[in-house]
Amino acid sequence: DIPQTPRRRVDPAHSCHGHRPQSPRRRAQTSPQGGAPVLGILVPSRGRPGNLRRLIDAIGATATGEVRIYTRVDDDDPTRDEYLALEGVHITTGPRIYYGPSLNQLAPIADADGCDHLAMFGDDVVPETHGWDRLLIDALDGRLGVAYGSDGLEHKHARDLPTHYVTQTEISRRLGWFAPPTMRHLFLDNVARDLGKGLGNFVYVPEAKIRHLHPWAGLAERDQTYREGGSNKRVRQADELAYRRWARHQLPRDLARLLP
Q1: Strand duo 202-212 + 125-127: pairing
Q2: 247-252 LR contacts (CB < 8 Å, sep 24+)
Q3: Which of 59, 70, 90, 153 could pair with 106 in a Cys bridge, judged by C-beta atoms 3.0 to 4.6 Å apart?
Q4: Residue 26, Cβ neighbours under 10 Å: how many?
Q5: What share of the chain is helix, strand, coil (3-state, %, to 5)?
Q6: Strand runs (DSSP E) across the chain, as ranges?
């Protein structure tokens, strides 16, 4: 809870309506349709249009494949008009539903747009490595799984925690969700880790640098969005309980839907 130089295309249209991590493989990947992969970056955002603008610019400067950015903006966001003025991002608006449900709304939109890979990003990340997107896609080696880079905070959390990651759209298609419906915001990286490990394709790519500018590391102010999310004890407890229930009861069934 993270960003790409030679020409990649970001569609400017607005749509306003233990297991050790594996070493990555380097075989270039194609999409299931036979063309170059298309990555949809899902990044719900609230109260931080400047952060999203920074992320769009960073993706434009570092991604080397075709990348499309999708965000969801709440109707009651005081900065809503600033979001709607942004270019280079597909924007969906609606009542406030929080981060996890927003991912679930954005994933099928990206799927319908032809994105065969999806990334979960926060608006407080900045990709730094040229070609980070292809590094992560290629690391998956054409098999269902989860690939993630270095967020710069491995000294503060477990190295096998994919705070921002890339996976195939096929996974959310089969499961019917990108984030478990019972989870509002937190522990979604734990879900990705469990799925990647269960699929036998959980890949850490340390050379793909995607910096996470989090207050936890003194890299950002603890604003209202943080206070209502990661800093909210009630939300943390509820999401942790929902995660543990999912891991205990639903994970085996979900893996059965994904494995051959």
Answers
A1: antiparallel
A2: 247/190, 247/191, 247/194, 250/180, 251/194, 251/195, 251/198
A3: 70
A4: 9
A5: 35, 20, 45
A6: 38-42, 66-74, 90-94, 117-120, 125-127, 146-150, 165-168, 202-212
Residue corresponding to tokens 């059965």:
256
CB atoms near residue 178 (< 10 Å): 27
In the block, which residue shows the tokens 């469990």? 194
What type of residue is 243? Y
Residues facing 211 on adjacent strands: 126
Structure tokens at 240: 């942790």
Handedness of CA 8, 192, 24, 3 (dihedral sign): positive
Beta bridge partners of 126: 211
Name which of 148, 132, 120, 111 is nearest 33 in CA terms. Answer: 111
Return per-residue pLDDT of the chain as tens, 260 residues. Answer: 322 222 233 333 333 333 333 333 344 565 655 689 999 999 999 999 999 999 999 999 999 999 999 999 999 999 999 999 999 999 999 999 999 999 999 999 999 999 999 999 999 999 999 999 999 999 999 999 999 999 988 877 788 999 999 999 999 999 999 999 999 989 999 999 999 999 999 999 999 999 988 555 555 566 566 656 666 688 889 999 999 999 999 999 999 999 98
The helix/strand/coil state of 171 is: helix
HSE (side-chain half, CA atoms, 13 Å) at 183: 26
